[in-house]
Amino acid sequence: MIHSHNDYEQKVPFWYALGSGANSIEADVFLENKKLFVAHNQKDITKERTFENLYLNPIEKALEMNMINQESLQILIDIKTDAKTTLNQIVKSIQKYPKITAQKKISFVISGNQPKPEDYNSYPDFISFDYQKLENLTEDQWKKVALLSLSFPQYSKWNGKGGLTEDDLPKVTEVIKKAKSLGKPFRFWAIPDGKTSWEFFAHNGVDFINTDHPKECVEYVNSLEKRTFKNNIFSEIYQPKFSYLKKKSPVKNVILLIGDGNGLSQISSSVLANKGQLTLTQLKNIGLIKTTAADNFTTDSAAGATAFATGKKTKNRFIGVDAEGKKTQNITEILSEKGFNTGVITTDEIVGATPSAFYAHQKDRGMEKEIAEDLLTSKLTFFASGGKSKISTNHQFSVVNQLEEIGINKADKLVYFMSENGVPQVLKGRDNLLSNVVENGLNFLKNKKKPFFMMIEGAQIDSGGHSNNVGTIVTEGIDFDRAITKAIQFADQNPGTLVVITADHETGGFSIPHGDMKTSNIEGDFTTDDHSATLIPVFSYGSGSENFTGVYENNEIFHKILKAVKLK
């Protein structure tokens, strides 16, 4: 629960904390001339800022309007003047508001200067106390204690950045444990006030988190569980042989892997959730691409994939056409003319933006019917995807229904559908389907005894970014690494294979503020539910991979691939 510390210093006292969802609100109270004033120091007292004006009247008004949605609302009254005389006046003031005292959800907790515990029971039921010691009390005295509070600086000088020191961490966790054993809600006061400290106290048993930023703190803490994911799906690390460094084989096969929405933070989350390593992180050649579209600072998948497939920047939503809308030959068409077989594998529907950029030519990614028609006349030798329901049964591809039959099939052109419509996410039972399809699909093309180009998309990392779902990002990223593993193993077994791994863009403005590698816990945070324009990593392996380092535009991927296979 969130405690609005020194709430009276907010621009709008009480109402701002109430609307933010805080469960506890603090007011420093002075008694002067039999009136209760709210201020930080006595010199700051003004006649209008009374306890009744700032808190009792608003509470009554909020009750009348049914605006107190919290299950409980605690008003922490920090007495700054004489304990008994001030508290007596507080009691008198509250008693003037029977609508408030009749509400069990509202409690008044006395902090600061207060009577001795032996006097607690002499006060009305609506008054309870903030006890500030770890010493035991009698059973009756404990009944009047609503809150147990201690000074955080007494145990640590932590500023809230990074983590507590090895010396301070056990001291702090031990005092929390001892305080909790007394059976009362617990808080520290004078804590560092930021997301890192909020996360620490929330995960270590502190019941009320002190903050001067109630809205931000409530939003952060309330979303913490949703944004924290414990991973139990792993990618087995493969150690590449790097034998291509010794033998310079000409490039015959190209495997382009695209993790849709897979920015550096997405990759990092999968690395950290996978015990600190992926097959991807074993690679040595790394570059960066700039992803802006021809008409927009931030690309979409259509323009991003079209840049990869055609070598030309284009407008968002355009598929296989240039910025003027003119049909542009794509890499599968170019390589087919040069004797290559070509394939596409995706965990999206086949008419999705990324896969369609490698065979279709339409002015809008939403033109699914026209895109599907382009597929029927495309140069693809093989594809595997979702979206069977979007494709006419009257097509040139032989359909294989058993995954294991892909690699041994002798058809000229082959398709394997993973689903009628969308492909299930890993979290919804997809298991190792992608990596198994990749392994079999690569064997199908290899058995044709011709060079080939294969585009493989891990499509649903992007879905996790759009939905701000950390678990989807992590598990889809790890599953994408399983596909990467199959590609790298294939390259080691088949000299002359170039593997390029990148993304069309980043999605979600994703970051990883906290986590635990030992338990594979990841806390993610987001700045958007859309794409961002951050630079995207490019990893490469095999013959010609040295050409993919550096920083360059996304459409250069196309030109670098053609250069690798000795085509202009």
UniProtKB/TrEMBL annotation:
The keyword Acetylation is annotated on this UniProt entry: no
SMART domains: alkPPc (SM00098)
InterPro entries: AIM6_PI-PLC-like_dom, Alkaline_phosphatase, Alkaline_phosphatase_core_sf, PLC-like_Pdiesterase_TIM-brl
Molecular-function GO terms, alphabetical: alkaline phosphatase activity
Pfam family, one: Alk_phosphatase
Highest taxon of source: Bacteria
Keywords on record: Hydrolase, Phosphoprotein
Catalytic activity, EC: 3.1.3.1
Similarity-based family: Belongs to the alkaline phosphatase family.
PANTHER family: ALKALINE PHOSPHATASE (PTHR11596)
Protein name, as recorded: Alkaline phosphatase
Species in which this protein is naturally found: Chryseobacterium formosus
